[in-house]
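Subject: Interface between my chains keeps coming out wrong

I've been trying for a while to get a sensible model of this assembly. When I model each chain on its own everything looks fine, but I need the whole thing in one frame so I can look at the contacts. Pasting all components below, labels as-is. Any help appreciated, I'm running out of ideas.
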Amino acid sequence: MIEMKNVSKWYGDFHVLNNCSTVVEKGEVVVVCGPSGSGKSTLIKCVNGLEPFQEGTVTFDGISVGESKTNLTKLRSRIGMVFQNFELFPHISVIKNIRLAQEKVLGRSEEEAKKRGMELLERVGLAEQALKYPGQLSGGQQQRVAIARGLAMDPDAMLFDEPTSALDPEMINEVLDVMVELAQEGMTMMVVTHEMGFAKKVANRVIFMDEGRIEEDCSKDAFFGDTRGERAQLFLSKILNH
Amino acid sequence: MLENFDFQVVIDAIPFLWEGLKLTFLLTFLAIAGGLILGVLLALARLSHIKPLSFLAASYVNFFRSMPLILVIFWFYFLVPYIVGRPVGGFYSVLVAFTLFEAAYYCEIMRAGIQSVRKGQAQAGQALGLTYKQNMQYVVLPQAFRNMTPILLTQAVILFQDTSLVYVVGLHDFLVNAEIIASRDNRLIELFSTVAVVYFVLCLSFSLSIRTLQRKFSV
Ligand SMILES: Nc1ncnc2c1ncn2[C@@H]1O[C@H](COP(=O)(O)OP(=O)(O)OP(=O)(O)O)[C@@H](O)[C@H]1O
Ligand SMILES: [Mg+2]
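Reply #2:
Try treating it as a single job with all components included. I did that and got this:
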């Protein structure tokens, strides 16, 4: 479903992504981890073309992301994305946040969009909050709305960029629970996270990045077993001790 | 001493003064509307990745911001009829001058406003599949306007006061009409203090409502 081949990206002289290749099959859940600044966000933003790259190819469902003739907006509407800082639109209500792209991008009617939106709010346990503004919700609630907003587009895959790292500890699980459920339903997911509990529970594969390179790309069992490389070992021991 | 003043003159002149005030209001309103629209487009051009476009917009802004308004008014008074090929009347040339002049200021305000919206917001819009135009229209600009409301309104008050400059091209705004009565009846003090009070009250109440708005929005 998602295929990256020898992707490289530079900021000036700085090599942010160094020859990255990986494949995410339909229905697979892939966790991406690695130290801060290793290029995780940049890597997943290449999938929906939010970050341009200079070399290599990224294809989504056979469509090349980097090519200028590709209809990027159409492609993006098929890939949901959840950000570290939620990025709900603060000037409109929760339900309008979820309706907006359904109506403007998918051309759904207001009723349809509202109906789908309410279903998803129900599902993430926030139906009563529909008319509130994002600023009136807790971080965990906002992130669940953001997930609902992404799902409302009925995407073929979801990208998550550290969805729980801006949350207070007591709110992390309410978000992870939604994500676990999604994974178990067979959603194709690429998740940047340091929540190794989540990885152990639902990941098919784990990618470990360091200094712009994909250092490890292996099955969950291999990653949490003892076949992983030295750097990953070190990284894992650091985050597990915290 | 007060018996030397005759405010009956002012009362009798109210309809005539009102005519002038209407022109002042109309000019202010149209110039704000036109200046805002053009200003937003200029701001988008200035922030564009297309180099020639942002360069042109920046040149425009720098040009108008280094010109005294009165010069721009004069200039367009003579230039607009020349471009259009027939006389257009003082009002339209002044309106063009004000609009183009204000647009430069609104551009800078809106540019700051757009930049005040977190980058992640535009990314979230993009990620949902919104086009550039939709993203601006529904996500970025509403937030930029909200952040900039106080400054936009302050600029509107300044524009309201600046419209009094139209006397140089012989338009009859509030101030000019007051001046006409003042010299006709030789009642300078009465008329000009009335003008001062009216400007003061209008601008003060406007500024006060801005502050209330500001308080409301800052929650
Ligand atoms: N616009 C930019 N210009 C220059 N360097 C940048 C820019 N954006 C990101 N970088 C650099 O690229 C590197 C990778 O950034 P990226 O955000 O992908 O890292 P990350 O792995 O997601 O880190 P974090 O865990 O902190 O989110 C970082 O070192 C960052 O400083
Ligand atoms: Mg990151």
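Reply #3:
Confirming on my end. Residues 122 and 140 of chain B are 7 Å apart (CA to CA).
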